[in-house]
C-alpha cells in the first residue's frame, strides 16, 4: 500500500475556496496600513532560538513549552518563529533603523508556529498580521496603533468586537507591584493551581490568566497594576484613553490584562469577538519600551500588535467561494490552439478566462463552463465558426472571433 499523508496535527491547508477571503483581508490590511505610513517587512520564518528566549522572555509559556526548536546541520539552535515582534526588533537593530527618522512604522503578514494543544481557533501553524511603531513613546502612537486595528476589524465587518485596555506600567513600578502580588499569592498558596504556585516568584502576573477556580478566587481580591501605576505611567495611560475617546473607539478597562509575553510595558490591549468560543482573542498588543535595548539596540520605546488571521476569518463566518470566470472558451478538437490563443489574449486584457484542458466534448465543455460560473462562453466550432453565448439567457450569436474578443475586452468582463 502506498503511504497516505495528512497535514500535521494542528496545521491545515488553505484551499482555493478558503483563499478568497484571506486575500480580501490581506488587501484591506495592506491598504489601511500603507495609507497610515507603514512599510511592509518580511523576516525569516526561523531565527536563532536565543532571540526568542531573550526577546519573548524565558519564563513565558511560549518559550517554555511552545516553540518548535531544532538544531541545524551545523549545530546551531534555531526556532520557527512563534511571534514577530522579537524578529522585527532584531531587524530594526541589525539594519541600523534607529538612524532613520523616528518612528519607524512596519507591518508584516505570515505564518507563525506554536506547539499548542490544537482546538477550534488554535493551531500549530497560524497566520498573523503584525504592526509595529518603533522609536516613540508618544501616547499618540499607542492610540494610532489601536485605532488602526479597530478600523481594520470594523472595515471588514468582524461582528461582536470588543476592546480591553490596561497598562502594565514601567519596569520599576511593575517590579514593586510584582512583589506585592507575589506576597498576595503566597498568603493564598493552598488555593492556587500547582502551575501558578510553581511560578509565584518567576511570573506572578500570569496567575490572572488562570482558569483554575481557586486561583481565580484569589485573583479576584488581588490588587491590579492599574491601581499601582506611578504618576508618569498614569498620565501616559490617561492620554491614550483620551485619544481613544476622541476617536470614538470604545473599550473596557481591564487591570488583569497581562498578555502572555514578557516584554510589555505601559499600554496593553486585546480585541476579542463574542462569535469565537474559548479562543476569543482576535488580536492584541501593547507597548514594549525595553525590547529593542534588550536585543542590543539603543533605548527605543515602541508599540505594536498582532492579529490572528484564522481567528478573524472564523469570526467573520463561512463564506467559502471560488472566484468565478468572466469567459469560458469552448473549442472543437481542431480549434484548441485558437482557444488557447483567445484565453491568453483575454487574460492579457484583465479578464478571467479559461478553457478545457481535459479533452471534453463540446457538450462537456459547456457543462464545465456552467460549473465555473462564467457569464459568457465563446464556442469555436470545427468549421472555424465562432459564437458568443450568454450563459444566463442561453442566447448566442455568430461573429468573427476577433470581433468577439474586442467586444469582450471592451465590456471588461
Ligand atoms: P498573541 O501575541 O499570543 O496575543 O497572539 C496574537 C493573536 O494571534 C491572538 O490574538 C490570536 O488571534 C492569534 N493566535 C495566537 N496563537 C494562535 C494559535 N495557536 N492559533 C491561531 N491563532 C493564534
What would you note in describing this structure?
With 413 residues, the chain is α+β, with helices and mostly antiparallel strands. It folds into two domains: 242 residues, BirA Bifunctional Protein, domain 2; 85 residues, Anticodon-binding domain (Rossmann fold, 3-Layer(aba) Sandwich). The protein is 37% helix and 21% strand. The radius of gyration is 27 Å and the shape is elongated. It starts with 15 loop residues before the first helix and ends with a helix. The model has no long low-confidence stretch (mean pLDDT 93). It binds adenosine monophosphate. Adenosine monophosphate binds next to strand 6, strand 10, strand 11 and helix 11.
Keyphrases for this structure?
14 helices; 413 residues; 5-stranded mixed beta sheet; Rossmann fold; BirA Bifunctional Protein, domain 2; binds adenosine monophosphate; elongated; alpha+beta
Low-confidence stretches: none
According to CATH, the homologous superfamily of the largest domain is Bira Bifunctional Protein, Domain 2
- Reading off the top of the CATH hierarchy, the class of the largest domain is best stated as Alpha Beta
Bound molecules: adenosine monophosphate
Overall helicity: 25-40%
Number of helices: 14
% residues in beta strands: 15-25%
Strand order of the largest sheet: 1-5-6-11-10-9-7-8
Cα shape: elongated
**What structural class do the secondary elements suggest?**
alpha+beta
Number of domains: 2
The separation of the N and C termini measures: 47 Å
Cα-based radius of gyration, to the nearest Å:
27 Å
Order of helices and strands: HEEHHEEHEEHEHHHHEEEHEHEHEHEEEH
User: Which fold name is given in CATH as the topology of the largest domain?
Assistant: BirA Bifunctional Protein, domain 2
